[in-house]
Write a structure and sequence with these properties.
mainly alpha, 5 helices, 78% helix
């Protein structure tokens, strides 16, 4: 349970950073301050729910597409978030493509790097316990 909560916090932070950085980089993508929190939570929840579904469908019906399921989940999450929330606006086909790739890449980097920063002490304690047992 603690691991799930930690991974959820990491995903929320990584997605928030990804959305903010992408909105700063792309002129046709905008985040509203008032709806930002709702947009991030909504985006994260949708992504967490649809990615396993897309992955399972790819495994069953098109294994060659398995690697692209995260991009499809990111695009789907962006679409639903823009439809439901007033906190995120994207216009233009090219912006949709760039936003999908940038949000996916930045979020992936965040989800890989944030645990190293956030849980540095926990990881150090675990290493110390593991090394103490080897003496």
């Amino acid at each position: 349970m603690i691991r799930f909560v930690a991974l959820t916090v990491v995903a929320l932070i990584a997605n928030a950073v990804a959305l903010v950085v992408t909105a700063l980089l792309l002129d046709d993508m905008a985040l509203d301050v008032s709806g930002f929190l709702l947009a991030v939570v909504l985006f994260t929840v949708i992504e967490v729910l649809v990615e396993p579904f897309f992955r399972q469908q790819a495994i069953l019906k098109a294994p060659a597409l398995l690697g692209s399921t995260a991009l499809v989940a990111t695009l789907s999450s962006l679409i639903v978030t823009t439809l439901i929330s007033d906190g995120l606006r994207i216009s233009g086909a090219f912006t949709w493509v760039l936003a999908t790739v940038l949000v996916w890449a930045i979020s992936l980097a965040g989800e890989l790097l944030l645990p190293l920063v956030m849980f540095k002490r926990v990881l150090a304690d675990a290493r110390a316990r593991r090394n103490a047992g080897r003496i």
